[in-house]
Amino acid sequence: MKRSKVFTTMAATAVAAMSLAACGGGGGGGGAAEEPAAAGGGEGAEGAVDVSDAETLFKLAFNQTEQHPQYIAAEQLGQDLYEATDGRYAIEVYANEELGTQADVVQNLSDGTVEMMYIGGPVMESFNEDFIVFNLPYMFDSQEAQAEVFADQDVVGDLYTSVEESKNITVLAGLHAGVRNVYNSKRAITEPADLEGLKIRVQQSDSQVAMIEAMGAVASPMGQGEVYSALQTGALDGAENNETVFDALKHSEVAKFYSYTRHLMIPDYLLINTGVLEDMPEEDREAFLELIPGAVEEANEGFVTFAEESRARSEEIGAEFNDDVDVEAFEESVADLVESSINNDVRQELFDAVQAANEANAG
Q1: Does one domain contain both 215 and 147?
Q2: Residue 334 sits in a domain of what CATH number?
Q3: Is there a single domain that holds both residue 210 and residue 112?
Q4: Which residues form the signal peptide (predicted)?
Q5: Can you tell me the distance from the alpha carbon of 87 to that of 52, in angstroms, rounded to the nearest whole number?
């Protein structure tokens, strides 16, 4: 199978994906695949199909819980694939890092010992730095704009296949992974000056350090497992993430001021081993690819509800959510970082496509 055959099929389903993905919510940034998510959400579909006797059972690695909407969507995708291929193919989802950390699993994916996985957007930068465009602050104005870009194979097709030769990995889809905002133990944040002097945890990334410092805070890069105790002892004043992580990791107990800076909408990606995809008979491969937009829609819609439930649980224990934020001032503070990162033709084209989608989905 040639690469173009896969993405011809995917392009044929892109219009459906764009119309399906126009779900509620919006604004901001996420990155759910970096850390575990909150309990809550829903269970798998009633009357679930037993896929264990499929002729070929793909393993899909996930580093979050069975309640996460991406897990639920992947479970349904596996059942739908089983039915669409008359039992020849199905997917079994392994949650809670059962197959290893993302760093371990992505190597196994490349080797083909794991067939599929979800991965956080920043990790893809290590394979192709052009993925940074979708991880920059204030890139997407809405979830709808993000979904439109990710469903357009004319925009993302080359990027999604760009690590096939080097890593034997194909990106099947980009997914909404929430809205990243600032929270801390001191005060509500309304403008960049309010962050002055606050030690805010960020991911261990040079661009993330530059971003939070440009926004006015003192950057404190560290692993997620250290954050709760650092907040509790005062070694950290706050962090930045979406509502699901704020709730799941109980940061709402020790940093109750959550302010909607809406500075990031980092996606997650659904990956598959390229060789595995190529080896599927054409009829089964096309059936599989035609199921992807529906799985994306289910996961994206589920994430909106998941975030709302996470906020409600946090509010029940006293967390305060502040939407009186001068987002334009924060966006202006990181404008130089964004401009300096759009430094080649590929990134410029991706950036222009995002701006077009933002405009088309404005209001």
Answers
A1: no
A2: 3.40.190.170
A3: no
A4: 1-21
A5: 9
- Please tell me the predicted confidence (pLDDT) of residue 29: 42
Query: Are 24 and 135 part of one and the same domain?
Result: yes
Crossing angle of helices 69-84/282-316, nearest 10°? 160
Q: How big, in percent rounded to 5, are the helix, strand and coil portions of the chain?
A: 50, 15, 35
Residues 295 and 340 in one domain: no
352 shares a domain with 271: no
How many structural domains does the chain have? 2
Q: Sign of the CA dihedral 119, 241, 126, 11?
A: positive
How many angstroms separate the CA atoms of 152 and 16, rounded? 10
pLDDT digits (tens, 9 = 90+) for 183-222: 999 999 999 999 999 999 998 888 889 999 999 999 999 8
Task: State which residues of the chain have pLDDT below 70.
Answer: 1-47
pLDDT at 4: 46
pLDDT at 133: 96
Asked if residue 50 and residue 192 are part of one domain, the reply reads no
Does residue 347 sit in the same domain as residue 236? yes
DSSP secondary structure code for residue 121 in this structure: H
**pLDDT value at residue 46:** 55
What token pair was written down for 82? 């089983």
Q: What is the DSSP-derived secondary structure letter of residue 267?
A: -
Q: How many Å apart are CA 299 and CA 291, to the nearest integer?
A: 13
Say if residue 116 is in the same domain as residue 90.
Answer: yes
Task: Tell me the pLDDT tens digit for each residue of 85-104.
Answer: 999 999 999 998 899 988 88
Contact 168, 273 (CB under 8 A): yes
**Domain encompassing residue 155:** 3-179+267-308
Pairing of strands 116-120, 56-61: parallel
**14: alpha, beta or left? (left if phi > 0; alpha if psi -120 to 50):** alpha
